């Protein structure tokens, strides 16, 4: 196995573990179903560093861990298809942020701002994840919607709210990391 490949796998395992640990920090906002997903920050950083494929694999691994450690134990999995869609598939879509990896690194090499690429990649990745949750919310969880809402509206409110709150969280963290973000993305072991 190549040294760079081993480093990428090791780094991915650490990122997945960190994302999983961050899942245990209370993260409900307002309505108990709207949640901030803290683990997306390390996963996005990893995706921007290592690219799309590595980001998707790390996202799938995080989704499987979350399914086993939190989903099954909390009763959040009603059937196999819903479990597969809402955990490994939805979390794997967070790796979409890695599509912009080369563009971000090119801009960093040219000492240009990466803010717009960071926001766009985060938006697309979160949209992909929460689109899966939106459809699962309608098809699987719709019968649990309050009587005042139809399943489509309720799922849009809960999953759209979670996506927006998580995106705002990511933007705030990236602004706080603005000075060190280039070093994090381009950091290399010697």
From TrEMBL:
It comes from Bombilactobacillus folatiphilus. InterPro entries: Thia_Transptr_ThiT. It comes from the Bacteria. Keywords: Membrane, Transmembrane, Transmembrane helix. This is Energy-coupled thiamine transporter ThiT. The keyword Kinase does not apply. NCBIfam families: ECF_ThiT_YuaJ. The chain crosses the membrane at residues 9-25, 79-100, 112-132, 152-177.
